[in-house]
Write a structure and sequence with these properties.
With 206 residues, this protein is an all-alpha fold. It has helices spanning 2-11, 17-20, 28-32, 44-54, 60-68, 88-102, 107-119, 130-140, 145-155, 162-182.
């Protein structure tokens, strides 16, 4: 099942086509997302499809993280003034573990995707201490950092003034994480450069 899902999304003209052209392929949680509305009037399903198509790098990891990142919203009863779906990241991570286990995925992949999904709402708009950044990296996993930023950037496409959000928050946060990783013993050192330069922070290990 997992291989057919990944291959289907990768070989379709757009990843979303795999789910929209053949709706019968949708698993239960994704099908339920069609009737779960967000504050902007867009369904969780439509938002998920947009995130899949907006990924700057489409791989097994990023596609699965995007596919599951908001499905926990379908398990929350939301009133009119509760637009942020509290704890939906945690609930989405539980769906990851349940669904990927049923697809007979490896424990390593389940751990990787659940980490990305559980942390995708991390608040990058507030001042962050060294301790908080350290915990963030530990929670995401150093080997997952690149994928986390790819997911976060694709997810933010739905935000009002997306380009401004990326410039003011995502890029500076990426620099902070790069600087933190550069200080860790035994890690690859990144080249110095303009703080606005988009840098790769892909590291081996956990």
């Amino acid at each position: 099942m997992l291989s057919s899902v990944i291959n289907g999304m990768l070989t379709s003209t757009k990843p979303s086509d795999f789910w929209t052209i053949n709706p019968s392929k949708c698993f239960a949680e994704l099908a339920k997302a069609k009737t779960t509305q967000q504050r902007n009037g867009q369904s969780v399903f439509n938002h998920t499809m947009n995130v899949l198509d907006s990924l700057s790098l489409k791989s097994e990891t990023t596609l699965l993280a995007a596919l599951f990142h908001d499905l926990g919203k379908t398990e929350i009863c939301v009133t009119f003034d509760q637009s942020k779906f509290p704890n939906h990241a945690l609930l989405s991570a539980r769906i990851v573990r349940r669904r990927l286990s049923s697809w007979q995925s490896s424990q390593e992949l389940i751990d990787k995707i659940s980490r990305l999904v559980n942390t995708h709402m991390f608040d990058i708009t507030i001042p962050l201490s060294h301790k908080t950044i350290s915990k963030f990296v530990a929670d995401v996993g150093r080997h997952n950092i690149d994928a986390w930023f790819i997911l976060r950037e694709a997810d933010s496409v739905a935000y009002h003034n997306h380009s401004i959000y990326c410039q003011q928050f995502i890029k500076p946060f990426k620099i902070k994480i790069k600087n933190y990783l550069n200080q860790l013993p035994g890690t690859i050192k990144f080249p110095s450069g303009d703080a606005n330069t988009d840098v790769s922070i892909n590291l081996d290990g956990k």
